Amino acid sequence: MKIKRRHKEAAEVSTESLNDIMFFLLLFFLIISTLVNPSVMKLALPNSKSAVQMTLQPVTVEVNADHEYAVNKTKIAFSDLENALRFAISKQTTPTVVLKLDKSLTVQDLADVMQIGYNLGVKMVLSTKATDK
User: Fold this and answer.
1) Bridge partners for 69 per DSSP
2) Confidence of residue 26 (pLDDT cuts 50, 70, 90)
3) SS3 86
4) DSSP state, 55?
5) Exposed site from 4, 91, 99, 111, fewest CB < 10 Å?
């Protein structure tokens, strides 16, 4: 009695070239990511371990979580912010603006207000609360 052996053929996927493809893709994305550099504003947030009081009477700009703006506690619309700041700093020899933004706001909200201050040529200071030690 002759027993026949069955030869099963297994399906195989050749993965020899995948390493080369992955290397080239990695190299491509690394080169592209260094070339694409959007205009990034570097922020150095103030350390609030100690509280320092300002001796000047600066202009304050407050923005709450509902995107309501106020200059020296007078509520205004965002479209009127530049004119209100221009009027408020006209009375000062060294114009300084203290920004009080709610912590739930995005960096874009901060950047929008800072851009207006930059256009007016004023010093802007970000106000923080002292942290518990």
Assistant:
1) 63, 76
2) very high
3) helix
4) S
5) 4
Residue 110 sits at the vertex; the CA angle it makes with 108 and 116, to the nearest 5 degrees, is 105
Kindly state the tokens that stand for 86.
């221009």
The length of the chain in residues reads 133
Rg over CA atoms, the chain: 30
Q: How many domains is the chain built from? A: 1
List residues bridging with 126 in a β-sheet.
99
Alpha helices by DSSP H, the chain: 18-35, 81-89, 107-120
Taking alpha carbons only, the member of 52, 76, 54 closest to residue 63 is 76
User: Is residue 90 domain-resident?
Assistant: yes
Q: How far is it, in rounded angstroms, from Cα 87 to Cα 32?
A: 46
Residue 118 belongs to some domain of the structure: yes
* 122 domain-assigned: yes
Residue 41: inside a domain = no
Residue type, 100: K
Model confidence, pTM: 0.54
| End-to-end Cα separation, the chain, in angstroms | 90
